[in-house]
Design a protein that fits this description.
This protein is of the alpha/beta class and 545 residues long. 29% of the residues lie in helices and 22% in strands.
Length: 545
């Protein structure tokens, strides 16, 4: 007999996540493959045109999600509506109208848009002019806890900052600085833009390498040649935000009489100081700007406990992808794995959970704008549909297992909170091992929607596929790895021959863990000293006042 969820008293005591009185079963709460596959096939279909933000396919997607939650019997999470409106500014660079050149060195340098450089307005301005000196600021990191400051008193106002992606790498003398080989939030491109904005810079250009970004230039290009989006009510960014290839950057630095590789080496040291390149960025960035309403879609299964039902467990996934282009050939970015898979799983989980409520309430949240910088989940964290102090956890699903069942499950990021022990207990009771934690080279913890919850203090992480495949391990690993070149490409399409047993397994584990949290006497907690725990404590204190 399959144990859908039983937490043994001894295991609970050992992990400290729950109390013995939490020994409960969520019998028959089983995720079914048939509805999951049906949702996945539909959400991946050309009819939805890649579920693009601000596009017709996105609106069709939202209507489908609302309809499915209503049909399943979930309660609207936003009063009488399943939709939380998220106001977004759409910005598309006019490539022929925009000009950007770099002068003052040995030669005037300019680059081909898309092939060597991409840029747009981070402030949603339709027209911005530039005459700004270039300054190389290393990694562009200011981290007092690491005794690290790449700016060292630089007045950034009116300057165009050039910086590296990722964060300072570990050394023999300091193997654990900036989390060692793992990427910290300081290494994320979003942080770079945010910090430059805080310092009043005129613009930012990031230097791309496959290794530092953890993805190829084509991923950057596909994200920037189309319309880009930002929260209309957010702080915005600098007037110019963009990327350039490593080869373009080498040419630019050479025109300034500098060696990029030598400066990159210097940027690995604490004593690095900003380097004025003696060049000016001049030109205009002309953009078409429009305001669009997108939506987070959310339904609730109310809890059964008179007191605990006031608290909620959230299961999340992003429904958006890159949408539809207007060029020749296949111009639909279907985003089947990323992230029709997670969206389909959350729908199938909701359909299972609604028939068997837990003690705490459960919210099934499908957010917009993840591909544009976690916009939907960020908007939710600013305007939550449930008090943050009473939100027990967010379990996120993004790009799921389409290969087959595994012997393990990925819970990286859970170790920051008591969710790590909870996940281990659930895995043990369901016959799974916790996948080995690897260095987070790509900064995965900061790249998916759970991070928006973590930043405001809600214990959160994304549940990933395991790596030890049950059936034909070598061939399965190769099949999984073959997805890499399809990431953010038009070839991320649904294949009806996929073995979805692993996807069902991943969704089932997520639901089992959610029920463990929903039926426990106490909410999860952050590990002592984790910076996100401070935000949690602030929420609790605010709610108590």
């Amino acid at each position: 007999m399959r144990l859908n969820f039983i937490v043994a008293i001894a295991t609970i005591a050992a992990f400290g996540a729950f109390e013995s009185s939490a020994l409960l079963c969520a019998q028959d709460v089983k995720v079914q493959e048939a509805p999951l596959r049906a949702h996945l096939a539909f959400l991946s279909d050309d009819l939805l045109e890649g579920r693009g933000t601000g596009q017709r396919g996105g609106e069709i997607t939202m209507r489908y999600l609302e309809t499915r939650l209503a049909a399943a019997g979930l309660k609207p999470a936003n009063g009488g509506s399943y939709r939380q409106i998220v106001k977004i500014a759409g910005v598309k660079t006019g490539v022929t109208e925009s000009t950007l050149k770099f002068s003052g060195g040995k030669e005037v340098v300019s680059f081909a848009f898309g092939q060597e450089i991409v840029f747009s307005s981070g402030s949603a301005k339709p027209d911005s002019s530039f005459d700004a000196p270039l300054v190389f600021v290393g990694y562009g990191v200011s981290a007092p806890e690491e005794s690290w400051d790449d700016y060292k008193g630089l007045d950034c106002h009116g300057k165009m900052l050039v910086m590296l992606v990722n964060d300072p790498q570990p050394t023999k003398e300091e193997p654990s600085r900036f989390a060692g080989k793992s990427l910290t939030y300081y290494g994320r491109w979003t942080y770079k833009f945010e910090e430059a904005k805080r310092r009043g810079a005129a613009g930012v250009l990031l230097i791309h390498t496959d290794a530092s970004a953890s993805y190829g230039w084509s991923v950057v290009k596909n994200g920037w040649v189309h319309e880009r989006f930002q929260l209309a009510e957010g702080p915005g960014g600098t007037d110019l935000e963009g990327w350039m290839t490593h080869e373009a950057a080498k040419k630019l630095f050479s025109a300034a009489g500098e060696d990029l590789d030598q400066l990159m080496a210097k940027a690995e040291r604490k004593d690095f100081r900003p380097v004025a390149l003696g060049l000016k960025a001049t030109g205009r960035v002309v953009c078409s700007v429009r305001m669009v309403d997108q939506g987070n879609i959310a339904g609730v299964v109310p809890g059964t406990d008179p007191k605990l039902k006031e608290e909620v467990v959230i299961y999340s996934a992003h429904w958006d992808h890159l949408g539809k282009g207007d060029g020749p050939g296949d111009q639909i970015w279907n985003g089947s794995v990323d992230n029709a898979s997670g969206t389909a799983a959350v729908l199938a989980m909701a359909e299972a959970a609604v028939r068997h409520p837990a003690k705490r309430s459960q919210m099934f949240l499908l957010v917009c704008g993840e591909e544009q910088g976690l916009l939907g989940s960020s908007a939710y964290s600013l305007h939550p549909l449930w008090p943050l102090a009473k939100t027990a956890a967010d379990l996120n699903l993004d790009s799921m297992n389409f290969v087959g069942r595994t012997k393990d499950i990925g819970t990286q990021g859970s170790e920051r909170t008591s969710l790590g022990a909870s996940a281990a207990a659930v895995a043990q009771q369901t016959g799974l091992a916790i996948a080995k934690v690897e260095p987070d080279l790509g900064g995965g913890y900061f790249r998916s929607d759970h991070f928006s919850f973590a930043k405001v203090g809600v214990p959160a992480f994304s549940i990933a596929s395991g790596k030890k495949f049950v059936k034909d391990p070598e061939a399965s690993i190769a099949k999984s790895a073959a997805y890499g070149p399809r990431y953010h490409q038009v070839t991320d399409e649904y294949d009806p021959t996929w073995d979805l047993s692993g996807m069902v397994q991943q969704a089932q584990f997520s639901l089992d863990l959610g029920y463990a949290i929903a039926n426990a006497p106490r909410m999860p907690t952050w590990k002592k000293g984790d910076p996100f725990g401070m935000a949690r404590q602030a929420d609790i204190e605010k709610a108590a006042r």
